């Protein structure tokens, strides 16, 4: 009898730009303060890509190269790349084609997936399905966003939240009791106007008027997003636990989308999961949209032990949201010390 194939994470990579944008710097360009930002969001600083030399494809390719180098994976072995992003280099062609080229993935096909802040979770489940089909052996899912390209640094409500970065995972098949379990993924369109870049697509193509109206920058209804994020992440997490016949007590680590520390705390309380089980790095990177979950996995990889249960939950524009359970497996061959050193910091200017 053929054993069930599951998709397990066998390698990780990450990348954040060297330039640090601090709360103190933001307080010099908009009406805010370090204390106010930390109290409201938990964010202390965020990384910002070079405006001219680093696009989303560059961030994603750097994360993939970090994965390949650290775990001694040959680029020609990769068969597919799923790029979760809300900020592709161009509307056309797909940024994933550039990522394949820049990463040396000569035998892979790739495609972009825009699920906003839920993009990586959607991509992870999609990649797991490719593995579970038995047709693919090595699939990379990478979440990457250059949010600074759509942030209005005159809008204090949004510019304090977002940063740039990328994280990647390699999925491989296993017949052991590890890997991605049943997932809950949802979108309903009800929040389209509450978290939106209005112009630049087919509904409102770029014009002089859209530029003057600053309609190419992200706008959001923070209070409505907060309320829906807490309710949706908590309910999806409960549903995912039920689908996988798991109790809250069986979860070793929670990996939430890093949108706001207060949202994460509220979700933890609703699920009755001790906050010490929740992994957070929002203070360093801010909200990197599609990159938040894989960057948490990358940052805390040494804390996860084979056999431990992880709960991943996300919420984003659309609205889009979801959750999945993941039994951590054995990472593939790696260097003696897991390398996740960040680039040296550089001064910030906007």
From TrEMBL:
- Matches recorded under InterPro entries: ACP_syn_III_C, ACP_syn_III_N, FabH, Thiolase-like
GO cellular component, as recorded:
cytoplasm
Domain called Beta-ketoacyl-[acyl-carrier-protein] synthase III C-terminal: residue spans:
242-328
Can you give the residue ranges of the Beta-ketoacyl-[acyl-carrier-protein] synthase III N-terminal domain?
A: 111-189
What CDD domains does this protein's entry cite? KAS_III (cd00830)
GO process annotations (BP) = fatty acid biosynthetic process; secondary metabolite biosynthetic process
* NCBIfam families named in the record: fabH, PRK09352.1
Q: Which protein is depicted?
A: Beta-ketoacyl-[acyl-carrier-protein] synthase III
From which source organism is this entry?
A: Chitinophaga silvisoli
From the UniProt record, report the name of the gene that encodes this protein.
fabH
């Amino acid at each position: 009898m053929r054993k069930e194939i599951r998709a397990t994470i066998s390698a990780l990579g990450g990348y954040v730009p060297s330039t640090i944008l601090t709360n103190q710097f933001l307080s010099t360009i908009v009406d805010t303060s370090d204390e106010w930002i930390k109290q409201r969001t938990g964010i202390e600083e965020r990384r910002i890509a070079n405006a001219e030399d680093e696009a989303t494809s560059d961030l994603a390719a750097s994360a993939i190269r970090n994965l390949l180098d650290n775990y001694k994976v040959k680029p020609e072995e990769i068969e597919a790349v799923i790029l979760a992003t809300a900020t592709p280099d161009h509307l056309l062609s797909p940024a994933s084609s550039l990522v394949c080229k820049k990463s040396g993935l000569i035998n892979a096909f790739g495609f972009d997936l825009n699920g906003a802040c839920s993009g990586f979770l959607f991509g992870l489940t999609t990649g797991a399905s490719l593995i579970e089909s038995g047709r693919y052996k090595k699939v990379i899912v990478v979440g990457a966003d250059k949010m600074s390209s759509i942030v209005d640094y005159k809008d204090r409500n949004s510019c304090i939240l977002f940063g740039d970065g990328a994280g990647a995972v390699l999925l491989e098949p296993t017949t052991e009791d590890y890997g991605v379990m049943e997932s809950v993924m949802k979108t309903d369109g009800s929040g389209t106007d509450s978290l939106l870049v209005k112009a630049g697509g087919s509904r409102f193509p770029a014009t002089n008027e859209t530029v003057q109206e600053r309609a190419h920058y992200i706008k959001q209804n923070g209070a409505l997003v907060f309320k829906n994020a807490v309710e949706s992440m908590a309910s999806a997490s409960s549903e995912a636990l039920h689908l996988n016949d798991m109790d809250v007590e069986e979860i070793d680590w929670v990996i939430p989308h890093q949108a706001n520390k207060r949202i994460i705390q509220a979700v933890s309380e609703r699920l009755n999961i001790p906050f010490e089980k929740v992994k957070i790095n929002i203070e360093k990177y801010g909200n990197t949209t599609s990159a938040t979950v894989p960057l948490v996995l990358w940052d805390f990889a040494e804390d996860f032990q084979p056999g431990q249960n992880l709960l991943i939950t996300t919420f984003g524009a659309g609205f889009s949201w979801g959750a999945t359970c993941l039994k951590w497996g054995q990472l593939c061959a790696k260097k003696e010390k897991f390398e996740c050193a960040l680039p040296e910091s550089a001064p910030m200017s906007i």
